[in-house]
């Protein structure tokens, strides 16, 4: 019982000292101090190598937005609209949103696919041609 009473007493004394101290600070000084704390909390900085360091406020906002964005994307992608299923009667069933995405972007998807194959083939052909010419003793300058 005595420990609880002492703790309550200490808390009361602490509160009274804090209140008295706060009352000693003029309003204009409080304004400057509060502005300084807010500026410190919202201002980006730089580390010893000169690289940008985000402010604590910006980090907090980015973490909250990242979490919300991740949850939203996960919810959307986990929905039936983005699933591919197999149905014994109809075969492969693509979700509506995924089907729309594929349909709208099929040209770009095909182009990227073909471009990758052609680029790889051209690089291989170039290498083989250089090897053949080198083996024949022919020098090629680029």
Report low-confidence residues grouped into runs of 5 or more: none
Residues in β-strands, percent: 5-15%
- Give the overall shape: elongated
Mean pLDDT: 88
Count of beta strands: 4
What is the ordering of alpha helices and beta strands?
A: HHEEHEEH
Largest sheet: 2 strands, antiparallel
User: Helix amount, in percent?
Assistant: over 70%
Characterize the structure shown:
A hairpin with a 3-residue loop joins strand 3 (84-87) and strand 4 (91-94). The strands form 2 sheets. Strands 1-2 form a two-stranded antiparallel ribbon. A two-stranded antiparallel ribbon has the order 3-4. It is mainly α and 142 residues long. Among the domains are: 1-42; 95-136. The protein is 72% helix and 8% strand. It is built from 4 helices and 4 strands, in the order H-H-E-E-H-E-E-H.
Mind sketching the topology for me?
Elements lengths: L1 H23 L2 H16 L2 E2 L5 E2 L2 H23 L5 E4 L3 E4 L1 H40 L7
In short:
72% of the residues lie in helices and 8% in strands. The protein is mainly α.
Relevant terms:
142 residues; mainly alpha; two-stranded antiparallel ribbon; 8% strand; elongated
């Amino acid at each position: 019982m005595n420990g609880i009473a002492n703790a309550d007493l200490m808390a009361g004394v602490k509160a009274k000292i804090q209140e008295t101290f706060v009352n000693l600070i003029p309003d204009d000084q409080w304004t400057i101090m509060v502005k300084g704390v807010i500026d410190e909390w919202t201002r980006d900085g730089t580390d010893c190598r000169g690289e940008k360091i985000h402010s604590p406020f910006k980090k907090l906002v980015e973490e909250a937005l990242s979490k919300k964005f991740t949850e939203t994307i996960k919810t959307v992608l986990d929905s039936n609209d983005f699933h591919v299923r197999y149905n014994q009667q109809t075969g492969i069933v693509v979700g509506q949103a995924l089907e729309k995405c594929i349909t709208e972007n099929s040209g770009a998807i095909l182009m990227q696919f073909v471009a990758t194959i052609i680029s790889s083939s051209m690089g291989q052909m170039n290498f083989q041609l250089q090897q053949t010419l080198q083996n024949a003793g022919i020098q090629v300058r680029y």
